[in-house]
């Protein structure tokens, strides 16, 4: 009996949210919203699409790694991309700040808009300042902890005391400050793997990116470090839009608001994470999530 | 069955013993060279040897101070030319790895490395000595520099390629330009290896005689003028060794000993600097 009551309460709140959304949606947003736009959570501002991807295809030479992907990434939310190895999710992620241009022979087709601006036409250093990236393997520079975090700031013209406060703030946000505050000028290589990965995140955060892309950031970490990073990501949502590629389905389920499932370069399904894991609409998604495949 | 395992064991021991013999044979020349040079040279090494210039023909005594300083100067000049060119072309090859251009440059470096040093000497004579009708230390430096370039290029390339690509990507992802990422992140990571390579290249060319015969030539007098002929240890050793006087022969041995010692000090300094750089990075 209480079960049915609960169900109907959830249903009503959903309806209310949808009505609220329709009422509060601004006309300018309409054209940028994707059909799947689900309702936002009450504690964060109304859902805005930060990144729009339309018919994106990525090639390495003649190999088409991403096929015709269209999706919208919500501001201040975490979007997880899952799928088996080689499905194109990392390539897709790297296309978002044009890191795939590093690979010779790589090219993209389609459209990517950051706040309505064409990513492919943006100046690359400016784009990467706004769209930061954390890689699978922690990649500290052969510099001190301080200089690692300050690296991006210095590129973009930061100096002096302004640097120091920004470094401290980034290290605090990445929950590393207490562990390193007494050895800021020691080599970053002295840190453990989990600390190095948090340092990479601090380094990316120092230049205040609007979007943070993470490419399997926890794949080399133990569960404790992984939990710390997931907690960190949760706290970052207030200032950042997060896109995370992960092999770990529990991680996607735990840490994300939206999930996209990639298979053989195609985006098979994209939805709210709960819906995706509890009631996927495509058979392939269900097979993958339940472990029958991949 | 038992027989087969016995045979295997015996074969293994024989091969192992052969390897040890090969190592000994390889080390024997080194031991003999060091023994001969030290035993013949040590007698003529004294304070005068380091402070005086050669005495006029026929007089005994004198030293090679001018040759020692000359070797340092000419090698230094060579390094001055070769280090920037070698490091930059090494970076170029490493960064365009896999492309046709990179292969062409690498192949060219290998060919340059294989060119006999006497040919390089003649070439520099033609372009930098003959037009000015003057042997100069500068020309010697150019010749040694040409010899160093391929060595430094190849070491730099290998060291830069050993830097994980993820480091470069990390810098690019923060909005760094390619050149900034290379200078501020990739090069510091490769620095210990590059330093070793540069110093080994210096040590290798410090003993070169042939390219200097037609370029820096020789000088009996104290000279630090780079636009004049300059004496260097290898050329001075050569001159004295083929000379007719016993005193010259003794001095030639002493010169060889000093040269070997200089090269040895160079290598030790390289090790030291490399370790220091590595320690600065890893913080141990």
CATH class of the largest domain in chain B: Mainly Alpha
The major pleated sheet of chain B works out as: none
Strand order of the largest sheet of chain A: 6-7-8-3-9-10
CATH topology heading of the largest domain in chain B? MetI-like fold
Describe the structure concisely for a colleague.
The complex is a heterodimer of chains A (294) and B (284). Chain A has 294 residues and is α/β, with parallel strands linked by helices.
Structure notes:
The complex is a heterodimer of chains A (294) and B (284). Chain A has 294 residues and is an alpha/beta fold. Chain A has a domain at 41-140 and 210-289: Rossmann fold (3-Layer(aba) Sandwich). Chain A has twelve helices and ten strands. In chain A, the strands form two sheets. Chain A has a six-stranded mixed sheet with strand order 6-7-8-3-9-10, sandwiched between helices. In chain A, strands 2-1-4-5 form a four-stranded antiparallel sheet, with helices on one face. Chain A is globular. The model of chain A is unreliable at 22-43 (pLDDT under 50). Chain B has eleven helices and no strands. Chain B has helices at residues 2-41, 47-51, 65-95, 100-114, 117-129, 137-162, 165-173, 178-206, 210-213, 233-241, 246-282. Chain B folds into two domains: 2-44; 47-282, MetI-like fold, CATH 1.10.3720. The A-B interface holds A 97, 99, 102, 104, 124-126, 128-129, 132-133, 135, 137, 139, 141-143, 151-152, 155-156, 186-187, 189-190, 200, 203-204, 207 and B 98-99, 164, 166-177, 180, 184-185, 188-189, 280-284.
């Amino acid at each position: 009996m209480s079960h049915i009551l609960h169900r109907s309460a959830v249903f009503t709140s959903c309806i209310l949210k949808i009505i609220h959304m329709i009422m509060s949606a601004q006309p300018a947003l309409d054209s940028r919203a994707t059909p799947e736009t689900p309702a936002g959570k009450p504690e964060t501002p109304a859902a805005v699409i930060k990144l729009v991807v339309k018919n994106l295809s990525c090639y390495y030479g003649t190999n088409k790694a991403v096929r015709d992907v269209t999706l919208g990434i919500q501001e201040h939310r975490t979007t997880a991309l899952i799928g088996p190895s080689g499905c194109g999710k990392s390539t897709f992620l790297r296309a978002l700040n044009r890191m795939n241009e590093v690979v010779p022979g790589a090219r993209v087709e389609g459209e990517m808009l950051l706040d309505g601006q064409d990513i492919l036409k943006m100046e690359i250093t400016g784009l990467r300042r706004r769209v930061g990236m954390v890689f699978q393997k922690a990649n500290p520079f052969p510099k001190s902890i301080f200089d690692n975090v300050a690296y991006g700031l210095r590129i973009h013209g930061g100096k002096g005391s302004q640097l120091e406060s920004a470094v401290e703030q980034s290290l605090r946000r990445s929950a590393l400050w207490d562990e390193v505050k007494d050895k800021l000028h020691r080599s970053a290589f002295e840190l453990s793997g989990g600390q190095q990965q948090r340092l990479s995140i601090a380094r990316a955060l120092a230049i205040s990116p609007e979007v943070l892309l993470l490419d399997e950031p926890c794949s080399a970490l133990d569960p404790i470090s992984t939990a710390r990073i997931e907690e960190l990501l949760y706290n970052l949502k207030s200032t950042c839009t997060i896109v995370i590629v992960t092999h770990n389905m529990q991680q996607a389920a735990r840490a994300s608001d939206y999930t996209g499932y990639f298979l053989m370069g195609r985006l098979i399904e994209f939805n709210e994470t709960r819906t995706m894991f509890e009631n996927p609409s495509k058979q392939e998604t269900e097979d993958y999530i339940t472990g029958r495949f991949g | 069955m038992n027989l087969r395992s016995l045979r295997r064991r015996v074969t293994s021991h024989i091969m192992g013993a052969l390897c040890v013999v090969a190592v000994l044979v390889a080390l024997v020349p080194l031991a003999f060279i060091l023994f001969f040079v030290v035993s013949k040279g040590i007698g003529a090494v004294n304070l005068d040897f380091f402070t005086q210039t050669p005495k006029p023909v026929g007089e005994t005594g004198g030293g090679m101070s001018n040759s020692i300083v000359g070797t340092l100067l000419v090698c230094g000049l060579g390094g001055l030319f070769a280090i920037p060119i070698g490091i930059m072309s090494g970076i170029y090859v490493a960064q365009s790895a896999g492309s046709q251009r990179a292969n062409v440059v690498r192949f060219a470096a290998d060919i340059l490395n294989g060119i006999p040093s006497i040919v390089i000497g003649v070439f520099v004579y033609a372009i930098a000595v003959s037009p000015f009708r003057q042997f100069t230390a500068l020309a010697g430096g150019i010749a040694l520099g040409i010899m160093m370039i391929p060595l430094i290029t190849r070491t730099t390339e290998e060291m830069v390629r050993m830097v994980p690509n993820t480091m470069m990507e990390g810098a690019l992802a923060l909005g760094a330009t390619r050149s900034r990422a290379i200078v501020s992140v990739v090069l510091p990571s490769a620095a210990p290896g590059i330093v070793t390579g540069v110093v080994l290249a210096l040590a290798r060319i410090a003993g070169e005689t042939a390219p200097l015969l037609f370029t820096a030539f020789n000088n009996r007098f104290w000279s630090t003028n780079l636009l004049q002929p300059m004496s260097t240890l290898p050329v001075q050793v050569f001159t004295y060794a083929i000379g007719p006087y016993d005193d010259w022969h003794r001095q030639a041995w002493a010169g060889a000993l000093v040269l070997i010692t200089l090269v040895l000090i160079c290598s030790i300094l390289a090790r030291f600097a490399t370790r220091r750089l590595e320690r600065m990075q890893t913080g141990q």
